[in-house]
Every structure is written in C-alpha cells, then in structure tokens.
Design a protein that fits this description.
heterodimer, A: 479 residues, alpha/beta, Aldehyde Dehydrogenase, Chain A, domain 1, Aldehyde Dehydrogenase, Chain A, domain 2, seven-stranded mixed sheet, six-stranded mixed sheet, B: 279 residues, five-stranded parallel sheet, 10 strands, 44% helix
Chain lengths: 479, 279
C-alpha cells in the first residue's frame, strides 16, 4: 500500500527572477567585461531561469580593488559594534524575505522546499545573527587581545547549500572586520545575487561584499589574485589541494572545507526506529549532496538483517519529485554533470560486486533525477566505500566489534563527519574519542548550528567554520 | 694524562640511537674550524623509519592522561637540570658563545619544558567549548592531537629552539620527527639522551640530524605525516614543502612567538560532538 498525497505546491509568485544579472561590485550590479554571460537553469525542469554575467580575471580585479578600498577606507575604521549592527540588519532582512529565498533556492538548486524553508534559509539568517554579536567581542575569542582581520578575503562556495554556504563564509568574515569577494557556484548563483540586494537594503557600505559569478576560472582568478589576503573554500578535495598548492609560498592563508565519506556506525543496542530515521537523514538529506553525509553505513553484523528490512521499508516511503511540493523528500540532482558522476560511481558498485537496491519510484521525465539507492555487501576496497558519491547512494558494510568499527570508519583519507547509534553512553564517548572526524553526531545526524564548529580532519580540509573556533580562520593571532 | 672519551652522535629513532642506515655522517666544527664531532647524516629511509616509530607511539602517547604527559614533560626538565653542565659545555664548544650565554639558553630550555608541562591538562578546558546550539542537543568541542608532526627546529639555536619546537607538539599527545639545526645538531642528540631517560615512551620524540634541504622534500611528500612545523626552513624550502604537502593536505605552520599556546593549537584538530537531550 502506498500513501497518496494531493500536490501541495509552494507558490512561486513570491520570487521575481530578472531576465539577466550583472556582477555585484562596489555596491552596484555591473555587466561583465565584454558582456559574457551564461544561463542558469532549474535542474528539476531544465528550464532556463536567467542569464548570469560571467566574470573574467579583469572583473575579479575590479571586485578585489573595491573590497580593498572598502576595507581600508570604511570597514576597518568602523567601530566594531557598528560593524556588528550591519550583520544584525542582514540577519533580519533574511528572516523577512525567507520565503522568497527558500523558493528561489529550490528553483535554482532542485532541493525540496521543505528543506530550504525549514533548514537552509533559517540557518543562513541565524549565522548572520550569531556572528553579528561577535563583532565587538573578538578580544574574548581566544586569539589574544585585539586580534586583527586579514583584509580582503576571497571566498568560493559550492552548489549544495548555496545561501547557507554564503552565510558560513560572509558572516564570520564581516564580523571579524574583513571585506569579501565571493564567487557562488556556477550552477546556483541566484540566491547569492538576491543576497546582494539584501546588502543594498541593509545599507552595507559599497565594496564590503562583492559577488562575482562565473565558473572555475573565475574562482581561480580569485585564489591567485595578489590582492587577496585569505582564501575560504568549500568544495571538492581535488580543488582544495590545488588551492593549497597555489597559495604555497604566498602570504595567503586558507580555510578549506572539502569532501567526506562519513561512517554512520550502528551498534546492536541502538534504538532501531530512531536509527532508521537517522540513516535516512544521513544519506538522503539534500539528495545526498552533503559533504558530511553518512554515506558509509557500518552496521553491527547481528542486527544487519533486521535493520536493512526496516530501512528498505522506510526508503520505500521517500517521495521523490517536484522540489516545490511541500511533501517532497528527495528533489532533483543539481546538474547533469553531477548526475553523470553519481551514475558512474554507482555503476562501479554493480561491476565490483556489491548488491544494489532501490525502491519502485517513478522519476520525472525532465530534469536530473536519481532514485534513493543502497548497496549491500560492500567491501572497504570498493570505490563506493572509498570515493565520495555526493548523491542519494548508501554503501552498507558490517562489523563485529567496536574496534573493527573504528578501524573501518577511519579507513579513509577523509575525516569530516561520523555517526554513532547506541544506547550506551560510555560507548558513545569511547567511539567519538577514537573516530578521526571533525563532527560527530551521536544518536542524531546532519545537525547544523552557527554556534557549533564544523570542519574536517585529514583530507577533509583545514580549519573550522562556526562557533568561536570558526573565528580563528578570519583573525590573525599573536603568534 | 688521560684521553677524553668522546661521544658518538647518532640519530634518535623509536627510543634507540641508530647510526644512519646510509652509513653517512658529516663534520661539525667549532667557530674556529676545529673538529668536534661526526653526527649522522639522516637519509630518506631514516626519516621513514622515524615516521613509523612516531606513528606506532601515537596511540599510547595520545591515550595517556594529560596529567601523565605533564609529569613526563616535567621529568624532562628535571633530567635536563641535572645535566645542565654538559649542555653548557656543548653549546660553548659548538656555538662559540660565552658560558653565561650558554647557561641562559639551557635554563630557558628547561623552563620551556616546565611551562608546557603545565599546559598538558589545561588546553582542553581553555580552548575547548560547550556550544549553545538551538535545540535539545548537548554539543561540545574538544581539541585533539593531530598525529605525527614533523618539525624543523630553528637553525640558529642548538638547544632552546628545538625544545621550543618539540615541547608544544608533544604536550597534547602528538608524536614528532624533529630535524635538528643542520649546523648546530649536537645538543639535539644530548637532548635525546635526556628524553630517553625521562619516562617518555620510545617513538614519541624522534630526532634526525643531517641536511635540512635533503630531508625537507621527503617530509613534504610523506603521506603519513599529518602536520609540519616549518620554522627552521628557508622560504624556498617552505614553499616546496607546502606544494608537496598539499597531496595529503598537511597542516604547515611557522612561528614567530617563541612560546605560546598557539604553538600547541597549531597541531590540534577540533572535534565537535552532538547528542540529543531527552528522557
């Protein structure tokens, strides 16, 4: 038996998408040099939403010059408490226009409106509110007295949480007194450009935030620009390593939030129904386009059959389809390129001998879609156990002892997230202690908060974002 | 008359004092060009052996209580104090400084151990946090050691620079492969003799002597080294090491401050744990 729901579409009338967008430099929208542009689409329908200016190196140069002037003439001279007030204003405007942002994000990204409305946008606003309060309290941040900003920060963000990643980057940078040149992801520029309007409404001094749209070449122009003092990047580990190479021998510092292959460890005494919900949230939240996804399920061998049966029943109830429908659980894959990558890796699971299972589900004929999928019989050597799929695909492995769980969980160059499910407190703390991961969710998964530091061990990146620890990335201490 | 019994200066790896597997050594003379000793010239293989020893020691050392580590760092200060005269003589011979300058360097080195000894069981409370997240969750962040750290001691100091480099790295449970100052390596090996008799488990500190420029690229590209203190490198060596180190995203730091909790934190990773609150 399946539940039938009437369609419950979120109205799109709240957003007014312009036919084209310029670059946001020095407080104004300006065309790219030479008028180059690229289309941005709705991945759920493949319809073109707008035409976006393509920033070249000379446009980046202008943005960096604007950020530098704003830093030296305005932002670094402003009393910290006043600086903080601008962040409070931005937080409030984001809250006021939350529905508009949620719909726009869903249109451009393909993620369900339930997530943009309840998670992405409220969290983005709260990141500004949280960091606003830090602006005049940096002496207490544990970086010595009077820590100093870097100056002009170059920021490059991914497409999986477009506005939320923007807020993770811009809020701490501004609170600590830096100015910003930010590049949103090529496939998801629209909420960043709407954010530029928020900066205008907030009266933020021109040049403090500059937003340049484009592709990897635009990002590379930011990273390599001599006028940039610090880089903050969220994205793939391969690009992160390239940035580490590019800034070697320069005075630039960097924070990198990169890939992951999070282990979600299920002990035999876990509360099984709650655990099933946690596994679902761990891998199917945001179509699995999550660097900290619980993409490797490590289940204690003696409960595997029972757990998998319940998990499969629960996965069968996931509603895949129109992201604007309020009942949709799994939306569109963000791009054709990402869909191809998911297919290629999942297919390697088949050829390497793992067993694939997906529920019956009808996928829309237009747009980019992938059904929720689990692989059982996965070994540690399989590509689907080692490589980040960044899609709704779960690899299931088993273990017998806690020591074996730790060994398997840590058997990866990544170290971003992990999950632990057990009723025993001492086992939670023992497991958490031995996991090489920066964020550990025990009896929960995929929870985020501006007060909670986020970031990885090993090849998952450098530094933390959020909380007091995240401020360190944007301040120069006394060492 | 009696002929002095001179010391053979060897490497310090896994708690033992091997010669370089390459059979190489190099000559150290004093400021006036008079021969003093032939310390070992470590090879890439020696480096790899040292990393294996450091990795093996990491579990036990990072698993020891902070109080225990603090006592062992303090013990190193105690043993150094007893051998202060030997360090002074060695520094005078190699650096050509006055004995009062050498004595000052030794005393500061001893006090550095004492200072970091006291940090071992405080770093978590000062630099960790409980985080006030929105929702019914208990959420805390703790600093943890990174693992195996390679360190290039400052080139201009025999002893003090090395202690200022090693002590903050191991205070929190990291293990270290330290490359001594190329021209002033003798006190580093004497320090190893102190550490070998300070209850410090073998492999926690490994000390290599030799050519900095030869060892730096291998350290940069070694995939089982988590972080590097590159203070003792030239800017060209530093750049080359960072490029190679990008392959496993090594955390590379250099320091101006001689003594600072930031030197501890640079080799720690922050771990955040969430748990629901409920009945």
């Amino acid at each position: 038996m399946t539940f039938e729901y009437a369609p419950a579409l979120e109205a799109t009338s709240v957003v007014k998408i312009k036919s084209e967008y310029g670059l946001f430099i020095n407080g104004k929208f300006v065309p790219a040099k030479g008028g180059k542009s690229f289309p941005t689409i709705n991945p759920a329908t493949e319809e073109t939403l707008s035409k976006i200016a393509f920033a070249s190196a000379s446009d980046v140069d202008k943005a960096v010059a604007a950020a530098r002037a704003a830093y030296s003439k305005v932002w670094s001279k402003m009393p910290a408490a006043e600086r903080g007030k601008y962040l409070f204003r931005i937080a409030r405007i984001l809250q006021e226009r939350a529905r508009e942002f949620a719909v726009l994000e869903t249109l451009n990204n393909g993620k369900p409106i339930r997530e943009t409305r309840d998670i992405d946008i409220p969290l983005a606003a709260s990141h500004f509110f949280y960091h606003a309060g830090w602006a005049d309290k940096l002496d207490h941040a544990g970086m010595g007295s009077s820590p100093k900003p870097h100056g002009v920060v170059g920021q490059v963000i991914p497409w999986n949480f477009p506005l939320l990643m923007l807020s993770w980057k811009i809020a701490p940078a501004l609170a600590t007194g830096n100015t910003v040149v930010l590049k949103p992801a090529e496939t998801t520029p629209l909420t960043a450009l709407l954010f530029a309007e928020v900066c205008q409404q907030a009266g933020l001094p021109a040049g403090v935030v500059n937003i340049v749209t484009g592709d990897g070449s635009t990002g590379s122009a930011i990273v390599n620009h001599p006028g940039i003092d610090k880089i903050a990047f969220t994205g793939s580990t391969a690009v992160g390593k390239g940035i580490a190479r590019a800034i070697a021998g320069t005075k630039k510092s960097a924070t990198l939030e990169l890939g992951g292959k999070g282990a979600n460890i299920i002990y035999e005494d876990a509360a099984i129904d709650e655990t099933v919900e946690g596994i679902i949230s761990g891998i199917f939240f945001n179509q699995g386009h999550v660097c900290c996804a619980g993409s490797r399920l490590l289940v204690q061998e003696n409960i595997q059959d029972e757990l998998l049966e319940k998990l499969k029943r629960r996965i069968s109830m996931i509603r895949v389809g129109n992201p604007l429908d309020k009942n949709t659980d799994l939306g569109a894959i963000n791009s054709a390129a990402q869909l191809a990558k998911i297919r290629e890796l999942a297919d390697s699971g088949d050829t390497e001998g793992a067993e694939r299972w997906s529920p019956q589900c009808d996928l829309p004929s237009k747009g980019f879609w992938y059904p929720p999928t689990i692989f059982t019989g996965v070994t540690q050597a399989h590509r689907i156990a080692q490589e980040e799929i960044f899609g709704p695909v779960l690899s299931v492995l088993t273990f017998r002892t806690p020591q074996e769980a730790i060994e398997k969980a840590n058997n990866t160059p990544f170290g971003l997230s992990a999950g632990i499910w057990t009723d025993k407190g001492s086992r939670i703390l023992w497991t958490a202690k031995h996991l090489k991961a920066g964020v550990i969710w025990a009896n929960t998964f995929n929870k985020f908060d501006p007060a909670s530091p986020f970031g990885g061990y090993k090849e998952s990146g450098w530094g933390r974002e959020g909380g007091r620890h995240g401020l360190a990335a944007y301040l120069k201490g006394d060492h | 008359m009696r002929i002095d019994v001179k010391k053979t200066y060897k490497l310090f790896i896994g708690g033992s004092f091997p010669r370089s597997e390459s059979g190489r050594c190099y000559e150290i003379s004093n400021a006036k060009g008079v021969f003093i000793a032939n310390p070992a010239q470590a090879s890439r293989k020696d480096l790899r052996d040292a990393v294996v020893a450091a990795r093996s020691a990491f579990g036990g050392w990072s698993g020891a209580t902070a109080f225990n580590r603090g006592q062992i760092l303090y013990r190193a200060a105690e043993i150094m104090e007893g051998r202060a005269a030997q360090f002074v003589d060695e520094i005078v011979a190699v650096e050509g400084v006055t004995s009062s300058a050498a004595k000052k360097q030794v005393q500061e080195a001893i006090d550095t151990w004492v200072w970091y000894s006291g940090w071992c069981d405080k770093i978590g409370s000062i630099f960790g946090s409980t985080n006030q997240v929105s929702g019914a969750f208990y959420n805390f962040t703790i600093p943890e050691p990174m693992g195996v750290v390679a360190a290039f001691a400052p080139q201009k100091s025999s002893l003090l620079g090395l202690v200022q480099t090693i002590a903050p790295i191991i205070a929190t449970g990291n293990t270290v492969v330290a490359v001594a100052s190329q021209k002033l390596p003798l006190s580093a090996i004497t320090l190893a003799e102190v550490l070998a008799t300070s209850d410090l488990p073998g492999g926690v500190v490994n000390i290599l002597t030799g050519m900095t420029a030869e060892l730096a690229p291998w350290i940069g590209s070694h995939m089982d080294i988590d972080a590097v203190d590159a203070t003792g490198l030239t800017s060209a060596q530093d750049k080359e090491l960072r490029v190679a180190g990008s392959e496993n995203l090594k955390r590379v730091s250099t320091f101006k401050a001689e003594q600072s909790p930031q030197r501890i934190l640079a080799f720690m990773e922050h771990k955040t744990v969430w748990h629901p609150i409920g009945i």
